[in-house]
């Protein structure tokens, strides 16, 4: 007796597997399954499943640092959700659009989409969706150099996630809290939250989250004047991120390794890692990351009296900062230019 073909069951099983791959950092595998699921959803004319799959595809593209392709998927998902009057799916697509614009450094656009998503999630009393969106808003505040504002939100999110019993999400928020405290220079509190986050991420096998948290712990060690300990951790993180094919994370860690070598006075090694980081940032169009590495390179050149090279780095950073909607960043770059 042959088993009858059940496309809905096939779609659901494939989506579950794609989600597992995504959580394990196997982004190409997740992308391949989501692509097949989109074809299936369209073949059976299931608009709701088409919308869900477009969101899944967008997340996989975002994980692979393909933000333009992610935007296309999320915009299509938004149209589908609006066509079939699926408010929850509409809010999810809006939230994902906001998250993608945040990655691109377009913060005012990001906050606009996230605010729209929050209104819908709150109307639906969808706490999980609200929490996820608030987390993206908190990340923007951290990126914009407003850690106190981010901290207020992160503490609110932590309480909500604990009420929901969202153990995995709790790990993400604890990492966010630790990162914000490290920016404020409160290193003891930062390490406390980051170690707690690490325990949860290991328990739930969130490998991408674990690498992010270890990277943040290494940064705290660097700030505490323990660059050698930071370097050991960064190299572990670099191996993990390469194994996970997390190119965006890899660039961040390469930049951090470069900075740590500059603290240790090994300028040649520092420059080598900055250049590797910039190559990846340029490949993916990550302007924020590229600006960070260019400023670090410029500082290194300036400290070794190579003013022309320092000026070139600062000018390149200045040009990029004009493409990002954030005045304090432009001012920071201008201060570097003025210091020469």
TrEMBL record:
<feature type="repeat" description="TPR">
    <location>
        <begin position="291"/>
        <end position="324"/>
    </location>
</feature>
<protein>
    <submittedName>
        <fullName>Tetratricopeptide repeat protein</fullName>
    </submittedName>
</protein>
<feature type="repeat" description="TPR">
    <location>
        <begin position="91"/>
        <end position="124"/>
    </location>
</feature>
<dbReference type="Pfam" id="PF13424">
    <property type="entry name" value="TPR_12"/>
</dbReference>
<keyword id="KW-0802">TPR repeat</keyword>
<dbReference type="InterPro" id="IPR019734">
    <property type="entry name" value="TPR_rpt"/>
</dbReference>
<dbReference type="InterPro" id="IPR011990">
    <property type="entry name" value="TPR-like_helical_dom_sf"/>
</dbReference>
<feature type="repeat" description="TPR">
    <location>
        <begin position="251"/>
        <end position="284"/>
    </location>
</feature>
<dbReference type="Pfam" id="PF13181">
    <property type="entry name" value="TPR_8"/>
</dbReference>
């Amino acid at each position: 007796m042959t088993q009858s073909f059940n496309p809905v069951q096939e779609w659901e099983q494939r989506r579950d597997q794609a989600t597992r791959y995504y959580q394990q950092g196997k982004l190409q595998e997740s992308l391949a399954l989501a692509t097949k699921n989109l074809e299936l959803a369209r073949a059976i004319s299931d608009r709701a499943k088409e919308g869900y799959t477009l969101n899944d595809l967008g997340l996989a593209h975002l994980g692979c640092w393909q933000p333009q392709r992610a935007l296309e998927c999320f915009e299509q998902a938004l149209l589908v959700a609006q066509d079939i009057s699926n408010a929850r799916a509409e809010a999810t697509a809006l939230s994902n659009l906001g998250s993608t614009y945040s990655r691109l450094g377009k913060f005012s656009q990001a906050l606009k989409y996230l605010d729209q998503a929050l209104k819908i999630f709150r109307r639906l009393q969808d706490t999980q969706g609200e929490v996820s969106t608030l987390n993206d808003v908190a990340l923007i505040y951290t990126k914009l150099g407003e850690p106190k504002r981010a901290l207020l939100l992160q503490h609110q999110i932590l309480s909500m996630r604990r009420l929901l019993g969202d153990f995995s999400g709790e790990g993400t928020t604890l990492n966010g809290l630790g990162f914000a405290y490290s920016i404020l220079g409160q290193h003891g509190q930062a390490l406390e939250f980051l170690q707690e986050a690490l325990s949860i991420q290991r328990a739930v096998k969130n490998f991408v989250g674990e690498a992010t948290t270890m990277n943040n712990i290494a940064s705290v060690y660097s700030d505490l004047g323990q660059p050698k300990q930071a370097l050991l951790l960064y190299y572990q993180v670099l191996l993990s991120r390469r194994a996970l094919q997390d190119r965006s994370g890899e660039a961040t860690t390469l930049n951090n390794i470069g900075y740590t070598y500059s603290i240790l006075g090994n300028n040649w090694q520092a420059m080598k890692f900055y250049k590797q980081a910039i190559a990846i940032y340029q490949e993916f169009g990550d302007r924020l990351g590229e600006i960070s590495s260019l400023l670090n390179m410029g500082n290194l050149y300036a400290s070794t009296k190579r003013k022309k090279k320092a000026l070139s780095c600062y000018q390149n950073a200045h040009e990029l900062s004009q493409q990002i909607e954030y005045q304090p960043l432009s001012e920071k770059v201008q201060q570097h230019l003025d210091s020469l």
